[in-house]
Amino acid sequence: MPKIPVLSLLFRACVPALAALLTVTSLPSTARAVPAGRLPEGFVELADVDPTIVQEIRYATVHNFTGHRVDGYLRPRCVLTRPAAEALHQVQRRLRPAGYTLKVYDCYRPQRAVNDFVAWAKDLDDVRMKGEFYPRVDKSRLFEDGYIAAKSGHSRGSTMDLTVVRRPAHPTRPYVPGEPLVPCYAPKTQRFPDNSVDMGTGYDCFDTLAHTLDPRVTGRQRANRLLLKSAMERAGFVNLAEEWWHYTLRNEPFPDTYFDFPVS
Predict the structure, then answer these.
(1) 242 is catalytic
(2) Strands of the chain, DSSP E
(3) Cis peptide before 168 (omega within 30 of 0)
(4) Which listed site, 66, 117, 228, 260, has its alpha carbon 20 to 30 Å from 111?
(5) pLDDT band at 155 (very low <50, low <70, confident <90, very high)
(6) pLDDT tens digits, residue range 182-202?
(7) Burial of 39 (0-12, 13-18, 19+ CB in 10 A)
């Protein structure tokens, strides 16, 4: 039997280890792995910090602009960094005596969910939810117009989508797949029912009317947006001007890290 050179044996032994190393380093440098079922250090469940804040996590359901349950949302719960959750608790403490409560639609968002959005946006034939969420926007323009992007501040854990609800908060009825869709900018009495105060559009409305300070939004609708905006800013949050529901903690603890653990 021919002898195999020692160097050859060493090379063969190193190949698996080298391949494993390359697999790890080829991942995004900002991604962080955590054991299944556990939260990374610095993250908490919002319900553990403030159980009075209403949660209606839309991406854990089919009632969202994709029409399917989004990848990474195994359970409908809000996860945030601890500083963001504690700051949100302070907002809630100020709103409750005035007869309001916060309601979150989305909190931490795994990178895999963002990837799911990107894949959906590239499928121009899937327009099943267009009638509600983006009736005036051609799906081919979602990237160009900034509605879909490859990265989201939600994946850093200190951004949330939320609204204000009058107390007592009666649950929003479930969405029935296939039911007639009404544009998200229609009058509140016509669009999909939401226990939120009237903000002028529904949540995740891909339309310029959703811009927080759009001059066409006046009266009670504008006052409701400003109620949320002032309360959030007082607690250290910054609004995204294009979305009345979108806020990020100004001093977020992970400003350059995009996480990808599932909401489970």
Answers:
(1) no
(2) 43-45, 54-55, 79-81, 100-106, 159-166, 237-239, 246-249
(3) yes
(4) 228
(5) very high
(6) 999 999 999 999 999 999 999
(7) buried
With both helix axes pointing from N to C terminus, report the angle between 219-234 and 82-95 in degrees, rounded to the nearest 10.
Answer: 130
With beta carbons less than 8 A apart as the criterion, state whether 57 and 79 touch: no
Per DSSP, 210 falls in state: G
Residue matched to tokens 């226990």: 195
Q: Is 109 left (phi over 0), alpha (psi -120 to 50) or beta?
A: beta
Output the pTM of the full model. Answer: 0.87
User: What gap in Å lies between CA 198 and CA 52, rounded to an integer?
Assistant: 21
Report the alpha-carbon distance of residue 139 to residue 95 in Å, rounded: 37
3-state SS, residue 104: strand
Give me the catalytic one of 45, 56, 242, 243.
243
Distance CA 79, CA 128 (A): 29
Q: How far apart are the first and last CA of the chain?
A: 55
